Amino acid sequence: MEAAAELRNLHPPSSSSTSTEVIHVFWHEGMLKHYTGNGVFDSGMDPGFLDVLEKHPENSDRIRNMVSILKRGPISPMISWHTGRPALIPELLSFHTQEYINELVEADRKGGKPICAGTFLNPGSWDSALLAAGTTLSAMKYIIDGHGNLSYALVRPPGHHAQPNQADGYCFLNNAGLAVHLALSSGYKKVAVIDIDVHYGNGTAEGFYGSDKVLTISLHMNHGSWGPSHPQNGTVDELGKEKGFGYNLNVPLPNGTGDKGYDYAMRNLVAPAIKKFEPDMMVLVVGQDSSAFDPNGRQCLTMDGYRNIGQTARGLANKHTGGRLLIVQEGGYHVTYSAYCLHALLEGVLKVPVSLLADPIAYYPEDETFSVKVVESIKGYHLNCVPFLREA
Description:
- The protein is an alpha/beta fold.
- It has an eight-stranded parallel sheet, sandwiched between helices.
- 38% of the residues lie in helices and 14% in strands.
- The protein has helices at residues 2-10, 60-72, 89-92, 98-109, 125-144, 175-185, 202-207, 258-277, 303-320, 337-349, 369-385, 387-390; strands spanning 23-27, 38-39, 54-55, 79-83, 113-116, 119-121, 150-153, 191-195, 214-221, 248-253, 281-286, 325-329.
- The two termini are 19 Å apart.
- Its cofactor is Zn(2+).
- InterPro entries: HDACs, His_deacetylse_dom, His_deacetylse_dom_sf, Ureohydrolase_dom_sf.
- Keywords: Chromatin regulator, Hydrolase, Metal-binding, Repressor, Zinc.
């Protein structure tokens, strides 16, 4: 009976009424000035034998569609828009080292350079990165100051791969990590971060690896390390260190997990951990690159899957943090479908009782049997190895 009641809290029943809530979206068009170039996928390379070079996956078109679907799509009456602002250099030092920030400032002063594989700091990139960081801080401060419980930082370049002392995976500054530090410095005792981007949120994990005040949970494709800029593997045994041991929970999901598998992981791994941790602030780090049609991922989430994740995250926030929930944008590289999936996720967060948009790509077949076995295996490992999850 108790388990059934908890599921009802996570997925409230539908009704015929429409949502009267709003989500506060923080955005600044200056972030579109980050130019990532053309080439073979994200390499920036022209091999000389292709007539058409594609845009880098992290390009401004993807964000333009996210902005436009929230402004002109059916969810638009439930959106309240706020203008972001650039972060100040001292604000960045809560998460990043001075040496690393100096490196980025110097690279920008000299006109930019490739920072690591697929990650290019070009003219305009640094200003965009500062806007992404500052806009995320503004979205968090809006909650902290009591103006609203639901904020969404619609930002680029993304941030969750950026570690305290290096860039990685299209990311320069860790937007979510900076917001977490702001919450902690403002008097919040415990912050939970749930990252559903298709890639391991390694930078955020690294930044709080020794802290028991921040629970980082990452649901990601089982991709492992991709080189010197991304030394973390995202495996279940990367649990944190010292007093932070057990407060970094990785959920490497099998490729093609899909809607049902993600929902199973959210209910059987994420929800129990949040309940045990008892946070007073929650951050949902979202990437639509977990979708069935993203060029940068191998998972099979559809709009229904994102809607369910939004519902679950909102239910957890309502139950444990007084409803305080910051959403931070990360990946999502299918220019059209990423926007649709964002719309669906926010519908879930806002508890919209009936889907406002039909899925344009529709049904994607899936078999959750294997992913359920993997989630149960991870659950057993966590219960055996993580002290705070074993506590009565």
